[in-house]
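pasting for the record
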Amino acid sequence: MQGEDLLVTCYYIDCGMNAYAISPAQLYSNTPSDFDFKLESLAQGFQSLSDFAQHLAANVDIVFPVIHGKFGEDGGIQELLEKANVPFVGTPSKNCLLAFDKYNASLELNAQGFLTVPNFLVEKDKLAKSELEEWFQSINLDKENGKVVVKPTSAGSSIGVVVAYGANDAAEKAEGIISEGIDDKVIIEVFLEGGTEFTAIVVDVGTANNSEPVVLLPTEVELQSSSNIDIQEDTIFNYRRKYLPTRQVAYHTPPRFPSEVIDCIRQGVSILFRCLGLRDFARIDGWFLPTPVTSLPSAENTGKFGNTKYGAVLFTDINLMTGMEQTSFLFQQSSKVGFSHSRILRTVVQHACSRYPSLVPCSNAWTALSRKIQAAKQAEAIQKGTSKKKVFVIFGGDTSERQVSLMSGTNVWLNLQGFDDLDVTPCLLTSGNGYSSFHNQNMNGISRDVWTLPYSLVLRHTIEEVNAACIEAIDPERMELTSRLRDQVMNELGQSLSKYDWFAGFDIADKQPIKYSLQQWINHVKEAQAVCMVVLEKMVLFNRCWDLQEFLTQLASYGVHTIPKDLRATEEILKSSPDDIWNDLKAKLQTETDLEVYANALERKLQRMPANCLSRAHGVIEMPVSPPESLIFEPFIETDEIIISTKSVDDSTRHLVWKGENKWLEVTVGVVGKRGEMLSLNPSITVKESGDILSLEEKFQGK
């Protein structure tokens, strides 16, 4: 969002409600834990939140709160800013307080004539199991094993959301959420069996006194559970599925619903935005139920909003702050209707400025400066008389780190987009027969394809999802539906935004993905005289990890050492006795049982292994798309445990502490430069929260 016409300053409020001015460089941290412990020594701190608010009043024009959950969406930060007369983006505090509490919001939705999900409120130290059992019976749910969802009333990012069976299980899980300190109120809802979840971004394009919400193209959330009956999991859209790269979820924008249902969703979200007094933007979640639900009393709900001839539409969650990571729903949906990341954020901020009379002079000056800068850039381009340099960014592939490749490639592409002299095209390397056949292909590249991607299709969590979205995008029926709905939404946005001088128009064109064979794509890059940015993990110099191992072994004479490895064919592992393999490799494994469990997971082609199913603590293990041809075994290196110190009387700040019991520390270091002249950057130390290996959450949850 920052540019020559806009200065953005970053602030951070920690769990202890201490506010700091931080460097934008900290935004590239994986999680706040990466810099929390050193804020007191490196960042500008404020004595109190009141002092922080006064600082904002004196130094900024408008604040864009992006805090999720408590204090961010419950009206806390908004009330602080209101008392200090600081303009801010988003909904007023009293409206936040109503909308963010799931139970109170459901009461308001019901009062406004919307279909709602039957629910039961559990408050701290006030749970009456007899009343809960009566509620189960009142909605025709079996009190012994009726399926419900248990979640905090005021927590964001799907934190604490679990499935329960029966009144006793629901009560235990509700008390667990409360005892863990996630929330002191819990809501128990009917599990909407057979329903499909959706989410919709809404943007306000009206005036200060007249809200005019426009709902973008909603997204269908398709949850994909494991096909193996031995993996017990409840299919809900939890934190892990929402924010981490996993094959457990896929998105479809617009949804694969009948047009009447999509229209109903968009109309309902718009009405809700007005009824709840929301401002600038929001995200509203809900469910589409194509079949009648016995727990929704038909007599009471017949005349309520959400009934269609195809089924029922229910709205369940009001999100005052939608996710802002680079592939979030906000950017997925806005890119479908002509907005880049920067343009949608600037549109939201400019609209918020227009609501404050005191900011009119500032907003006018901002608009004038933006136009002046844009005109100067256009004049410079004409004077140079040269076309933009073409750059192709390619990512994907078939390695276990293909999701890292996607995130890295997306980041590279988005950053290069900011240069006016570059024409950047994102590209996906995939298999000609889909990802399921990758491991059966020759490594000479003949069977591989490359998709050139439009802006919106890059914004996905996994390579498999991008590939599926490309295939879906060229389906004739989907093309027609998407084009029609896109035009409808863009017309609504354009008619309203065109009355504002600051609106710079849409900046993302409607394009289709194009599929090339790998050789055709290489020829295309050559013909374009383009620069190719390769962001393929472990696929450039080496086809497999074993090739890399053999190469590194040759560097031992130069002082470069690697962990010794043993290569075994997967077929050998599956057919041989674990005892025989264990005797041969016992120096490299924790226990014989670990090998047996892992081999069993490979043989059954599990998508993932549950947390802590091996002898040492670990998170969920994502398994290969299909069993690899071979496995590499290597000795486990015990590294020293590094912890963050707690603040004591003698310590003015917290710091990293390690005992020095082992001679190894895990570090990561980047290198940059020309071939033969590479320079090393400062290394990073790895601090694990639990277990011996970084979990998926620790590695990627900061995306």
